[in-house]
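Work Package 3 committed the consortium to producing structural models of liganded targets before the mid-term review. Because experimental data for this complex are still outstanding, the team generated a predictive model from sequence and the ligand definition alone, so that downstream docking and mutagenesis planning could proceed in parallel. The input record is reproduced below exactly as it was submitted to the modelling pipeline, together with the SMILES string for flavin-adenine dinucleotide.
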Amino acid sequence: MDDVVIIGAGFCGTMVAVNLILKSNVPLSISIIDRAEHFNKGIAYNPYSKNHLLNVPTGKMSAFPNKPDHFLDWVMKTPDFIGKDKSVISSSFLPRSLYGDYLKSIWNDTQKIAKSKKIMVKTIDGFVKELDIQGKKTIIRLEDGCDVLAKACVLATGNQPPRNQKIKNLDFYKSQKYFQNPWKIASVTNIASDLPILVIGNGLTMVDTVFGLLESGFKGQIHAISPNGFNLLPHEHSGATYTKLQEELAEPLALSQLVSLANKHIKGAKRHEHTAPSVIDAFRPFAQKLWKNLSVSEKHLFMARLRHLWNVARHRIPQQSHDKIRQLQIDGQLSVKSGRIIDLKETEKGIDVSYFDKQENKTKALQVFRIINCTGPESDLMKIDGLFKKCISRGMMQQDALNLGISADTSTFQVKKADGNVHDNLFTLGSNLKGELWESTAVNELKVQAEQLADVLCKTHTPSCKTELIYD
Ligand SMILES: Cc1cc2nc3c(=O)[nH]c(=O)nc-3n(C[C@H](O)[C@H](O)[C@H](O)COP(=O)(O)OP(=O)(O)OC[C@H]3O[C@@H](n4cnc5c(N)ncnc54)[C@H](O)[C@@H]3O)c2cc1C
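The resulting structure, written out as tokens with the ligand in place, is given here.
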């Protein structure tokens, strides 16, 4: 039986293991399970294209909370960047594949430290289908039928594939011309170069998919449909940070007070040549605390009325990506519509799409030859067949009040059972905590969680462990 088994080897799984290795000073056995191609990269940092960029500048992507320049310093030592201007690189948006290389290099360096501390680290190429807890033991069943046993288990399962849209003809989803998972290269390859295609969704994944299609030599029409049309904003370069909010956010505030505060500061910020997104950036460090203070009904109201505005301000893209998308729109190759898919039907000629066009206020039709779902990671875990649905159905876990993830104690990362009590030895972090924390998706928050969870594991299993990192 392993001391700690981590399910998922993306950023979260990797950094929990790394921090645990760095902090522990007693021999441990750690196993980490994922599909081989995702090891140390996960979904986010295993892109199929070098044109898929980080949406956060280099200077803000360190994997360690107490070493803010760790990624930047690593980049500056790589052959392509030696001798370049550090301040320019710090504010640049580098390929996500490079970030995957960074995580791999942290992992490789840490393995040497593990060896010197007699910590056994095992990587298991597999996918977990079921979990069971018997007394102090967690039984982790893989899809090949093998079991892995753990004293403590960490669910670092991250981003789930997007949900299928509600349509009448559900049989359509069996079509070879439909791609539910936009992060796989198959979604943009082996495609006739001039026949129209439809992308469902107009967010960050749509941008990646459009670039992937162009790289594959696609020259045809790309239609993109989502409820709000194209609303992505570019990152603006501003050396200055909007700092005027801090004092006013010290006390717990109701949602209506937060909205008034945001409006007041957005107006005031213009005087300092700041825009609304920079005010939202100023809210960001407080977002988890503010979210926890809201009532469930306020959270529902936020999801219904304000989530979209928050996400537009929060999830910005590099200016060069924004320019490319705009150019494709001007040239007519990309046509962005705001609306809702009503039905999809495969015929001998292609795919008939029926959708409601919001601008024209009527139902319209399109014919396309491929559909790629870019609606973003699914967070309602009961809508996906698999590990979580089974665990929730059996009362081993519960969804949070908004069905954005699962319930957990966010100070210890212990997963809650259906009766509200926490599991002693089942932990989670990352996007599974979105309902508890709201902002629990980007490296900025996840690096802190990974370090804190390693502390919890370290104290539980190795009471004498150090709490100081020794990595550099
Ligand atoms: C396309 C994309 C781009 C992003 N870009 C940025 C960015 O530029 N900057 C930023 O800060 N954030 C970005 N993010 C946010 C991103 O979610 C986090 O930065 C971080 O990568 C999340 O790491 P994770 O380990 O929680 O999730 P993931 O990267 O999703 O990794 C989870 C891993 O768990 C594995 N897994 C899931 N279920 C099982 C199972 N049952 N058994 C075994 N393994 C399982 C998956 O195979 C996967 O490898 C991006 C997200 C996406 C999807």
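Reviewers should note the following from the model. Confidence is low (pLDDT under 50) at residues 463-472. These observations will guide the Year 2 experiments.
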